[in-house]
Amino acid sequence: MAQVEKRQFNVYLPPDLIKRVKHASVDADESLSSFVERVLEDYLLRTSEERER
């Protein structure tokens, strides 16, 4: 599988949300970057499908 170029993307979030996301990525046995990427892709796919209905 080909590597996709990655770039840094900084966002500002509440400390409690950061803590919860970090714990969720550990629970999912994923790196923080992979976890956030997957969750965002899932959300965008879901909302795109809902708009098409």
Automatic annotation (TrEMBL):
GO terms for biological process: regulation of DNA-templated transcription. InterPro entries: Arc_rbn_hlx_hlx, Ribbon_hlx_hlx. Gene3D superfamilies: Met repressor-like. This is CopG family transcriptional regulator. It comes from Amycolatopsis coloradensis.
